[in-house]
Design brief:
This protein is of the alpha/beta class and 257 residues long. The protein is built from 13 helices and 8 strands. It is 47% helix and 14% strand.
Length: 257
């Protein structure tokens, strides 16, 4: 299968077999039936990863380890969300919330404030007049190249970059707008607050994170602050990667005691 897992408790595995998990290998059953609060699945594409994830979500709901409305499955694309929804068994699908990280944060923030999401095109439109005032300083560099690469912009034109990005932040605040990257940052700010902690701490019995290797620092911190009763992360490796390969230390730190 190419599916393995890490846990906090020395990779503790249960030998119990569940007749309600047909069509699964012994390795898949061990992952699903393990009593560890935190698990990490390491799997190659095509190895049965999605089947393992959806069967795990269904098992937790059927056995009461997670309750309807308290199971969250996070992915990184709408396509992956759709695939997960389609693969969930009909009797448990309604009890599982499937979303991208950005989609979940959008819903969280939208429940408290009204705002508009803006993308790169809107940012270029708003900031182009300001950049034109400094055309001689910028030279022939396309505005989109500077705005699309903030690090390079700050290196080449530190004072101008500071002026432009400060203006952009003020504009977004004035017009109640957010970029996609703002959503996780704002959600983190709220989760760190007393109100956020009281509302979200242990709200979910189970959180499953697909494509966990793609998480960044903010998303890792987001998961830590959510504090679910059970956390399952799924690390995808290439077909050429050995089954014993493990994720980087950065992606294992959420498992430390």
């Amino acid at each position: 299968m190419g599916v393995s897992f890490l846990t906090r408790k020395n990779r503790k595995q249960t030998q119990k077999m569940d007749k309600a998990l047909p069509g699964l290998s012994e390795a898949q059953r061990e992952i699903i039936l393990s009593e560890a609060a935190t698990k990490q699945i390491v799997a190659a594409a095509g190895s049965g990863k999605t089947r393992t994830v959806t069967a795990l979500a269904g098992h937790y709901l059927r056995t009461g380890r997670s309750r309807p409305g308290r199971t969250l499955l996070l992915t990184f694309s709408r396509k992956a969300c759709q695939e997960m929804r389609e693969r969930l068994d009909a009797d448990v699908a309604a009890g599982v919330q499937v979303s991208t990280f950005h989609g979940f944060c959008f819903g969280l923030l939208a429940s408290m404030h009204s705002f508009t999401v803006v993308g790169e095109e809107e940012m270029f439109r708003i900031l182009a007049p300001l950049l034109r005032q400094h055309k001689e300083e910028i030279g022939g560099i396309p505005f989109s190249s500077l705005l699309g690469n903030p690090r390079l912009f700050r290196q080449e034109f530190p004072e101008l970059a500071m002026k432009v990005f400060r203006y952009w932040i003020r504009w977004k605040e004035k017009h109640r707008c957010l970029e996609y990257d703002d959503m996780i940052r704002r959600s983190l700010q709220w989760l760190r607050s007393e109100k956020g902690q009281s509302r979200m701490k242990a709200k979910y019995d189970l959180i499953i994170v697909d494509e966990y290797q793609d998480t960044d620092r903010q998303q890792l911190r987001f998961l830590e602050l959510m504090q679910p009763a059970h956390l399952v992360t799924v690390v995808c490796v290439s077909h050429s990667t050995k089954e014993t390969s493990e994720p980087s230390p950065r992606h294992c730190r959420v498992f430390r005691e």
